[in-house]
Amino acid sequence: MVNHPRAGALAGNGHRRSTGDAAEVALDEPLWTVEKVARLLSVKRAWVYTATRDGLLPYVKVGRHLRFIRTDIERWILENRNH
Question: In order of start, what are the domains of the chain with their CATH numbers?
Answer without folding.
Answer: 2-79 (1.10.1660)
